[in-house]
Amino acid sequence: MPENFRDESLPVVVAREQILSALAKTGSLILSAPPGTGKSTQVPRFLLDLPGRVLILQPRRIAARALAARIAEEMGEPLGKTVGYQVRFENVSGPETRLLFQTYGTFRQRILHDPELKDVQAVVLDEFHERAWEADLALLWCRELRRRNSGLRLVVMSATLDAGELNGYLPDAARVSVEGKVFPVEIRHQPPRMQEFLPQQILRALKSLSNSGWNGSALVFLPGAGEIRQTAEQIGSWCREAGFRLCELHGSLPLNAQQDAIRAPLRGPSILLTTNVAETSLTVPGIRYVIDTGLARVKRYSYRNKVEQLGVEPISQAAANQRAGRCGRVADGVCIRLYDEKDFLGRPRFTEPEILRSSLAGVILQMMALRLGEVSAFPFLEAPKPKAVADGFQLLHELGAVDEQHRLTSIGKTLAR
Predict the structure, then answer these.
(1) Max Cα separation, the chain?
(2) Cβ pair 301, 228 in contact under 8 A
């Protein structure tokens, strides 16, 4: 790949001057761009013209690693020079690193030790629509820094985002929308049959695609690594007989295994069993088919048991559309949803923010450490329920992290909102 390679046909590259001009005028930008437009790899490169370091925040380690590796490859440099990444227990960067990919969790730790973000010229919040609470915290903290006239540039990027509330939260931000080059995607619905388990549903969908003339590779979205392993065992022999390479793609894989899986379709027809890590940021080449189980693992706080539980839940319409969009990138695609259309239409339009379904004890501690004003006010994009705030303070009190007076005062102010 030649040095400083860039695909000039990418829609985001075509919109480069519009994006940079809007950001220069206001200092903050809300960028909407569907999958395949190049926003996650090209927008960070646009910001290399700024004098300081640029932080690009991602929801997952797999995306932070893969995107950093991709841009370094495009620039003809080793990973860790101009472009690097920093995730939990891994730091592939150095003093020359200008583009640093981090997870939102790593950024949360960073601002505890470097709250003013010294030497950071811009922060990019990518895939913000996933709405992890750490992403909401990053947005809040960057907004606070900009209110202090720090000169920090802020870019919020998303493929599917309910921008109404975000516009009110960042009233001075410029808005840029980039249209993608999307090929038609045929949506088929294949509800489960009586006593048909998930791997059997997937195998039936694969056989249906194969019988109708297979030409390309497929992504199969599953809730987690356990379901991926079970499905691989069930469909492995059929894949070998049909001549398909079978790969797994999830966050617990090492970087080289992740990269091998992402590039598998370049070596021939492949079936990638993946979690929702492939919904956004990561681009898997050669995908013509998607099989969507409509499920994902979701962390949710139980008011009754006072603990967080990880369960399998239906995804939102926006997430389902994200998954379908992965197969309309290079040619016409087919997405088979393993649920009926009525089920799809009954789902929420957007993914519920994590801060509305999580224990708030950790959030409260983070806000107290950052001295973010009155903690009970919760100045996030969307405020959680008073009951959740009260439970968070109660748990911290039981752990000895806040005293009784602080707990009662904060709960009282919260309930008075």
Answers:
(1) 69
(2) no
